[in-house]
Amino acid sequence: MAPIPDSEECWQAVCARDAGCDGRFVFSVSSTGVYCRPSCPARRPARRNVRFHADPAAAEAAGFRPCKRCTPNGASPAQRLDALVAAACALLENAERPMSMGELAARIGLSSSHLSRAFKERTGLTPRAWAEARRQQRLAALLPHSRSVLEAALDAGYSGTRALYTAASALSPAQRRRRGAGECLRYAIAACALGQVLLAASPQGVCALLFGDSEAALEAQLGQRFAAAERQRDDAGLGDWLAQVLTQLEQPERAAHLPLDLRGSAFQLRVWQALTQIPSGQTRGYGELAEQLHSHPRAIARACASNPVGLLVPCHRVVSASGAAGGYHWGVARKLALLRSEDDTRERVS
């Protein structure tokens, strides 16, 4: 078992109702005789009445009973909502026809408004938008192997093909069925301080900026992200853009300004746009961005993890509430190196 943090750190976590410290310790209140998890939403107790314990068993051995509001000896309210939202996703995934919010809420056992809020906080989408996104994913998986677009649409849950053509897309359904015939991505690779960097572009702009340890690994990454497209190496044609990227890596104050071709859900695009507004040398917490975008930290973290354009969409500037680096698709060491470089530059300039 990890050691309990010092009492001052514990008290700060209680004052902040820091859910990240749940499971690390519990605190008891002598005036009420109960013990709670750090994130308990109840009124903050007086410091003189608070003691800290390594776990629920230690608190109960000291004579305290579990809080009925935050259930420190079981699943937290947030964890229970996580499970209910997961169950809602499973229902939507397996439904033979679209489900209304009222139907879904009744099956889950929550009010429509409560379910809608919890669902959007955790997935970044409404249940209806989530179900549509999954249907589009099924369609994308079926198109290359179906005899016709209509067959794929029906198998994916559409009533026909009309809806497939109502939204603008880089590729038509027919092109996607032919595994992206008609789209060609150019890419270039160069050595950099972080190992190797690959820049890929469509006619609309940069669609991927990836880091890796070898050219082969980077080409494999690109192939996984854009399996349906033709990919052509063009170091000469993309040399100017790649040079701007390398300059930014070495001198963060000289930011590259390149056109971007970002491809994601509406929520992902909102998150990625917000990331581009974080100045170099500064960071934001997942919780801060979640509050700004009226979402949930987990949804923000997932959108950051799926960002295909490193550096130019600076997901490395998003850190955990404790100030720790948090995760990074291309490795925490690269994230820390980027943050140190930007921080050093800010100090020199100031």
Automatic annotation (TrEMBL):
Domain HTH araC/xylS-type: 85-159
Cofactor(s) needed by this chain: Zn(2+)
The keyword RNA-binding belongs to this UniProt entry's keyword annotation: no
Catalytic activity: a 4-O-methyl-thymidine in DNA + L-cysteinyl-[protein] = a thymidine in DNA + S-methyl-L-cysteinyl-[protein]; a 6-O-methyl-2'-deoxyguanosine in DNA + L-cysteinyl-[protein] = S-methyl-L-cysteinyl-[protein] + a 2'-deoxyguanosine in DNA
Keyword annotations from UniProtKB, A to Z: Activator, DNA damage, DNA repair, Methyltransferase, Transcription, Transcription regulation, Transferase
One GO BP annotation of this record: methylation
SMART domains: HTH_ARAC
GO terms of molecular function: DNA-binding transcription factor activity; methylated-DNA-[protein]-cysteine S-methyltransferase activity; sequence-specific DNA binding; zinc ion binding
Entry protein name: AraC family transcriptional regulator, regulatory protein of adaptative response / methylated-DNA-[protein]-cysteine methyltransferase
